[in-house]
Amino acid sequence: MTVLSHSALHGVKVIEMGGPPGSFGSMFLADHGAEVLRIGRPAAGASVGATVGLTRGQPLDRGKRAVSIDLSRPDGVQVLRELISRADVFIEGFRPGVVERMGVGPDECLANNPRLVYARMTGWGQDGDWAMKAGHDINYSAISGTLHTVGSKGGPPVLPVNYLGDWAGGMLLAFGITTALHAVGTTGRGQVIDCSMLDSAAVLSSVLQAGLSLGDWSDTPGSNLTDGGTPYYALYETADGQHVAVGALEPKFYVTLISRMGLTEADLPGQFDESRFDDIRRAFTRVFLTKTRDEWVAIMDGFDACFAPVLSMRESWEHPHNVSRGTFVEYEGAMQTAPVPRFSATPAAIRPWAECAVPLADTLAGWGLDGAAVEALVDAGTISAPPLS
Questions:
Q1: PANTHER family, per this entry (predicted)?
Q2: What is residue 46's predicted lDDT score, i.e. its pLDDT?
């Protein structure tokens, strides 16, 4: 396979405004070669917009450049309009109506740039009864039904950090943008993307939602095949207070698992005898508590039992498989995930910090603003270099 000299999104120009979900989505675009320019306010409270600063080693900032624009000034809004007119993608992450009031709504921007992909990232979506309500990931996940699925039988839902709305939302946004860019290539026309964190959380449970309506899934958490309802797809505590993850759904893996645990099929009820699941669970609980997590890792090593240790984030950096695959990389003093997914011909790469933290004139030169224009805008207080840390 011939490896090309540039990444898949080389030449794609992206303007980003808003919060972390949109920044997460544009992180994927930057990793794959897009030129991402973040727009924000010059100081807290100075204007509408997200804080613009770039932080060394922050995944949401990697591979990007930035400029502060005072959007309370008419000439600041005009600068933003000009930048958007030269972009392939504009990402905004505000409540419905905010960018319209700024003067950079989709109608204006698409009129000036008909090939523009105008990507809108909100919590509840552009329409619906709750479109204007405040909220965070936990709220979007809650009404999607997805949060309810994460928990144990008889217990409360378990909060899965902010994966379901914020970060899933950013990934869905990146997918939507690349899909829309393909459509631009075939139709010559841009369009508006309405991406919500509610929809992102909901789509993660789409198979379960259908299963519930078809009678294949229970709405009671902890009573299904892959939510801890089966004793051989569950988490178990070990002698040192750590945990292991067991996923031996198939009979061949189940037989290997119990054999390495020192059990036989004769010691246990049938694998699929649901009336005896509690007996199997008690046996597994008892046996796993006899050894430490790492002792169980050694016992299971080399055998296909669908078994893995539950690692902390810090431990995951040093796991042999993650090290050999390069799952994590150190970037500017911070450990983070390597760019994904992996392409054979146009591999992704994290742009060095030195290529991001450049003079403002260099940042804007690639967007059609010459040095004299940039200097005049700086002198007028319309734009400024972003704070870097």
A1: ALPHA-METHYLACYL-COA RACEMASE (PTHR48228:SF5), SUCCINYL-COA--D-CITRAMALATE COA-TRANSFERASE (PTHR48228)
A2: 43
Of the candidate CATH numbers 3.40.50.300, 3.30.1360.120, 3.40.640.10, 3.30.1540.10, the domain formed by 233-237+243-309 belongs to 3.30.1540.10
Question: Any catalytic annotation for residue 166?
Answer: yes
Catalytic residue among 61, 166, 199, 227: 166
Active site residue 182: no
Q: How far is CA 239 from CA 93, 152, 245, in A?
A: 47, 22, 14
Which of 3.40.50.10540, 3.50.50.60, 3.40.50.300, 1.20.1250.20 would CATH assign to domain 13-204+332-384?
3.40.50.10540
Pairing of strands 334-337, 328-331: antiparallel
Q: pTM of this prediction?
A: 0.94
pLDDT at 48: 41
State what percent of residues in the chain have pLDDT above 70: 96
Say how far apart CA 21 and CA 92 lie, in whole Å. Answer: 10
pLDDT digits 0-9 by tens, 267-299? 999 999 999 999 999 999 999 999 999 999 999
Amino acid at 73: R
Q: Which of 6, 10, 107, 136 is catalytic?
A: 136
